[in-house]
Write a structure and sequence with these properties.
Number of helices: 1
Shape: globular
Largest sheet: 7 strands, mixed
Number of strands: 11
Oligomer: single chain
Strand content: over 45%
Distance between the termini: 39 Å
Helix content: under 10%
Length: 129
Amino acid sequence: QLQLVESGGGLVQPGGSLRLSCSASGGTLDYYVIGWFRQAPGKERVGVSCITDSDGSTYYGDSVKGRFTISRDNAKRTVYLQMNSLKPEDTAVYYCAAEVQFTTVQAMCATTGTLFGSWGQGTQVTVSS
């Protein structure tokens, strides 16, 4: 099972940018879908963005489309989430997750993350002036 570590979170003003990184160890990223999920206080965890290994297909939640971009570098065993035009409602703990692909990226990602078996510890993103 992969071990995942997130980094790059922090405090940013509205309209600003952050880049989150998810670094994996304990194996390669081959065949894995890597996803970013977030959970705000008092709210359910939701899928933000996911990316496949097979063809690089991506999924984005409606609230982040056009602002966030996911990418992966298998050689570095790292997945990135570039977050632009950040809004206060993006404030949450962001988690990286991994699972071997067994269905479409949308089916895996448009969930609370129950289809993913490996998780990082999370990184806090706070968008506030």
